[in-house]
Here is the input.
Amino acid sequence: MFDTLLQNLLNALQWGSFYSLIALGYTLVYGVLRLINFAHGDIVMVGAYIAFFISSLLLGQYGMPAFLPGWAVLALTIPLTMVLTSVVGVTLERVAYRPLRRKGANRLYVVITALMAGLILENGNLLLLGASRKKFPEMIDKVVYKFGSVYVTNLKIGVILTAILSFIVLHFIITKTKVGMAMRAISYDKFAVPLMGIPIDTVIVFTFVLGSSMAGLAGILFALSYPILDPYMGMSIGWKAFIAAVVGGIGDIRGAFAGGFILGIIEIMVVAFFPSSYRDLIAFSILLLILTVKPTGLFGVAQTTKI
Amino acid sequence: MTLLQIKDLTQLFSGLCAVSELNLNLDERELVGLIGPNGAGKTTVFNLASGFYQPTHGKIIFQGRNLAGLKPHQVSALGIARTFQNIRLWKEMSVLDNILVAQHFHLGYGLGSLFFRTPRYLKREREIRHKALELLEIFKIDAYAEEKPGNLPYGMQRKVEIVRALSSGPKLLLLDEPAAGLQSADVNELITLIQWVYDQFDLSIWMIEHQMKVVMSLCSRIGVIDFGRLIASGTPTEIQQSPEVIKAYLGDDQL
Here is the structure.
């Protein structure tokens, strides 16, 4: 009984890690721009595809000689994917969101633009690469550790540790560095920020760099765990991570981190006791209940709307 | 020496003329007031001078440099700092952090220092912190450095906002209704404080204020605007006797 619980908990932490990493991106952009970046889930998909092409290239798929061992390919793929995914995120901000912000567009239009940007990413991928699924290459050998009757793979441990480490780094950036402090300042009162000498566009670009690089990271980790890629893979996990961010209290990174794990745990525990087709129904009913009790989310504070 | 020159400044907001052909000069080491009835366009002038709006026509020249096309953070880097009519501190960050954020970007260390904490970076960081604490001490609010501004009394928040503006080392300080919402005892303290800031720091102050007591006792010159136009300017005594000003404030249907 205890072993089963532990086994489930490990699975829950793995899924929670995916949700948390993605939810952090939603919450960062929301905190700074008050924008729900609905394209974020598709950025995760883009990240997974970028990782697919980089790792395939390094493994000698496209005529390039394979000269690196698998672990080295992975070690190169991770930072390169994060960098390239953040380029995609920043481009999205430049092309889609910044022009609207310049014209002072209502937030609703920006959110709709985000939804459209997501659809463009999905369908652009479909056009470029076709509807057939891609098999994500295996870069490292799977190692299974056994503790009593609990099994855990090296990948699972890696995913969970990466999520925790990312949160620690992000928390440091937000609370201790000048850009992070400027991000917080923008989330409290945007108007005063440029007048205090802070270049607001630089801070926004940096926000997208942080959010998208973590989406890229989530994309790799997800593809390593579930190695089938398709253009719509980011949609469902993106929506769920967004809900996790809201349940945690959107705008607060602790909330997003906690919310992701809460969602992961609820989902796995539902599956442990009910048929798996009930998973989303029961999981989201529980989340709905949490929001009914605390509408601002677990870490959120009520925002007074300023005019 | 002229510090700030405003030439034929006009600002239209979709047809509404908020500021109209305004001409004004500010010298170095001057404490000047800007008054006018509600909605006269005073804050718009400040928003133009701090780069928040781009003027429809006309020029703003600061230390010989045209501010046209500059973004607010660039204007701020040139040496114009300001406070706001309704206090705009970052209420959830400590008083000290409020001041540190404003200072950070005035120093030119790049994004790379985010991850690579060089000794030079750490030294800079210490200097900024030291300077911020020193400023808070001068204003006798160092005891509240770790406090959130939202928890402080209104008068103290005003002080913090002035300290934050001063921390960037401006040549021109714009104060937008510093006495708004203060009780009369606090107003007297504010007058002393502004005079003291003006005496201690090498800067010019330009303030918008409704309370005549504040403007009259502090400013050497006052400009009066109404419907975006400069209707009078001169010493406090001249202003008090100007028929245009009396008309603007009281209406012209008097006997």
Remarks:
- The radius of gyration of chain B is 19 Å.
